[in-house]
Design a protein that fits this description.
The protein is an alpha/beta fold and about 375 residues long. Helix content is about 45%, strand content about 15%.
């Protein structure tokens, strides 16, 4: 979109009481953004959502177009200096899934680029202070999903978000970060290196103008974009009032899939996902396959880990042990009991599986499958 019309969009969005939805209503009513500058007061109030006082504000704001053109040119010059770009709702490269949500952003600032493969994407969000269990699950599921061709969407926050982004990159996958500040304001600051790695292997996007600080009120609004870009949203550890629950709510409103990893009942960070599962609003997830079978994914690459397991010869005892192990640590005596084996025999087979790369031993004679 040309500079003049980007300036017009930014001017409309600057009017108190005007958001993306009302901008789309106005342009739909008058056929083009330029036509709004020639409409009358009576024509404005005929638009859905435009009440009398708001029409007065719009008419007053329309007189400031020249100053907004100058302001917009300065901002775009700064954006282009950091090799950024701008997308509007009407541009061909605007994400198709995002267009379908109730109030899509009409302007997106972007570093990096979208790819056709990003249509197969999943949002992964959760607490900023995950437990060791949450970290392990986030890493395992993200790696498996990336190896099956999914782009990972998240919010660059501390905790689960950062783990999802970094794990996607470690597995040579694509990832997209949606942030709640301007592209020139990296938050949290310790994610600066991660930010630029994402730019190189995906995109960082924001609907906020350059220079916008990461104020608390920006993040709930940002969350609708995270879910809106994705086929579904996976929740890993969050309190009932956590931001990840807002993302899940947006996903449900947008008719997207919601998935949740169950957690310990005595952990407050399990309340969010456990409640979503209990209410039937999220599918319980134990492995990546639980997600993949629910999504209309067009491209699936071979899961290298599963293929590796197929090519490893296992004894009957080793197969028995693998059937009772998962990503939740289990004590050696409990594994032996479940497998009807002596502790010593079980330990020999566990060590054999560890050499084969299928089991990991943790402190305290605890084991998990990998």
């Amino acid at each position: 979109m040309e500079l003049d019309n980007i300036a017009r969009l930014k001017l409309l969005l600057s009017v108190e009481g005007i958001g993306p939805h009302k901008v789309l209503n106005l342009i739909s009513k008058f056929s083009s953004i330029e036509s709004i500058w020639h409409c009358t007061y009576n024509q404005l109030v005929s638009v859905d959502g435009i009440y009398k006082a708001l029409a007065d504000k719009i008419i007053a704001a329309l007189k400031n177009l020249e100053s907004f053109k100058e302001q917009t040119k300065r901002e775009l010059d700064k954006l282009f200096k950091i090799k950024g770009s701008i997308l509007t709702y009407w541009d061909e490269d605007y994400p198709a899934f995002l267009r379908k949500i109730y109030f899509p952003p009409v302007i997106l600032y972007m570093l990096g680029k979208f790819d056709k493969a990003d249509i197969d994407s999943l949002a992964i969000v959760g607490t900023r202070q995950p437990t060791p269990y949450g970290k392990k699950i986030a890493e395992t599921l993200t790696a498996d999903l990336v190896n099956n061709g999914l782009t990972i969407i998240s919010g660059l926050a501390r905790g689960i978000d950062s783990i999802a982004h970094s794990t996607a990159l470690k597995n040579n996958g694509r990832t997209i970060a949606v942030i709640g500040s301007g592209l020139d304001v990296i938050y949290p600051p310790e994610n600066k290196n991660l930010f630029w790695k994402i730019v190189e292997n995906g995109a960082v996007i924001s609907e906020y103008a350059l220079g916008t600080k990461p104020d608390a009120q920006n993040f709930p609004r940002r969350n609708r974009i995270i879910s809106g870009l994705s086929l579904g949203t996976l929740i890993i550890e969050t309190k009932l009032n956590g931001g990840a629950m807002q993302t899940a709510e947006y996903a449900l409103d947008q008719n997207r899939e919601v998935f949740a990893v169950p957690g310990n009942l005595d952990n407050i960070k399990s309340e969010g996902p456990n409640t979503l599962i209990k209410k039937g609003e999220a599918k319980l997830v134990q492995c990546a396959e639980d997600i993949l079978i629910e999504l209309p994914v067009k491209v699936k690459r071979l899961d290298k880990k599963q293929e590796l397991k197929k090519n490893i010869d296992l004894t009957l005892f080793e197969e028995k042990i693998l059937r009772v192990l998962n990503s939740t640590p289990k004590y050696i005596d409990n594994i032996a009991t479940e497998c009807s084996m002596s502790t010593s025999d079980c330990l020999v087979n566990l060590l054999s599986l560890e050499f084969k790369g299928l089991v990991q031993q943790l402190p305290g004679k605890m084991f998990i499958s990998v």
